[in-house]
Design goal:
3 domains, six-stranded antiparallel beta sheet, 9% helix
């Protein structure tokens, strides 16, 4: 016969402390997460694990594109407060939901990663050959690595996210995508170092306003009819409400019922 081992009390924790244990644990996890976030700055390479926009667990790798913002996430069917991080390739707009990851105490983490390697696939080509570039002033977004040409062997540092557009004087302006500063004016035959940039985010349509369902008219009322009259005195308890007389005060045209919220025509 197998006997179950006796249970021993290892530590007698007072009830009031037992009630506070989860709260203390959560507070400690919150402090730890806040300290991890405080040690980071936009532009740092990171690996972040948390909750994506759809509520699923996600891992984002790249650079921290902006400072974290307070946010809430769905965790185990509950809305939990945390911080939203924006992580992705350099120059990716933070409006792209693919960069979002929300960290909540206990289920989120972020760590500094190794610096990303230099992008590959740089092109040393004439400005006029940029895909999508037009003479109507519409810009094309690229990663800009400086002047190109036969004597240039590699792109310059730092790499900048830039917009390229045609000017009226027959040249192409290459401008910093964030500040708008003109970095270079180049003819169409002039060569530059460039890489394709992430596609610009398309703004999501604003949610449609909720339309309250139209209530059916109460029984005994008529829709779309305007009544004008004066209140009269009750003649008996069997009346459905306060009597309403015609403007001349001669005939009852209906009653106000339910604390004057409903009119019942005669």
């Amino acid at each position: 016969m197998v006997q179950a081992p006796k249970l021993h009390v290892l530590d007698d924790i007072p009830e009031h402390e037992l009630q506070q244990t989860p709260r203390r644990k959560k507070a400690k996890m919150t402090v730890n997460l806040e300290e991890s976030l405080a040690a980071l700055s936009p532009g740092d390479p990171v690996v972040a694990e948390g909750v994506g926009p759809g509520g699923a667990s996600v891992t984002r790798e790249g650079v921290l594109l902006a400072s974290p913002k307070p946010a809430t996430a769905q965790v185990d069917g509950k809305r939990v407060k945390g911080w939203r991080l924006f992580v992705g390739p350099v120059g990716t707009p933070t409006s792209q939901r693919a960069t979002w990851v929300t960290l909540v105490p206990g289920t989120g983490s972020v760590e500094r990663a190794e610096a990303p390697t230099r992008p590959t696939g740089w092109r040393n080509e004439e400005v006029r050959d940029l895909p999508g570039l037009r003479a109507d002033g519409r810009s094309v977004r690229i990663f800009f690595g400086g002047k190109g040409g036969a004597r240039s062997t590699e792109p310059a540092e730092p790499v900048v996210l830039a917009d390229v557009y045609y000017t009226d004087d027959g040249k192409y302006a290459i401008c910093d995508a964030d500040s708008g500063e003109t970095l270079l004016l180049r003819t169409g035959r002039g060569r530059i170092w460039w890489l394709p940039a992430p596609k610009r985010a398309v703004p999501e349509p604003a949610p449609e306003a909720a339309v309250e369902p139209e209530l059916a008219p109460a029984e005994g009322t008529r829709r779309g009819v305007l009544y004008e009259g004066v209140l009269g005195a009750r003649n008996g308890e069997d009346e459905p409400g306060e009597p309403v007389l015609d403007p001349a005060g001669r005939k009852v045209i209906g009653w106000l019922a339910d604390n004057r919220s409903r009119f019942i025509p005669a």
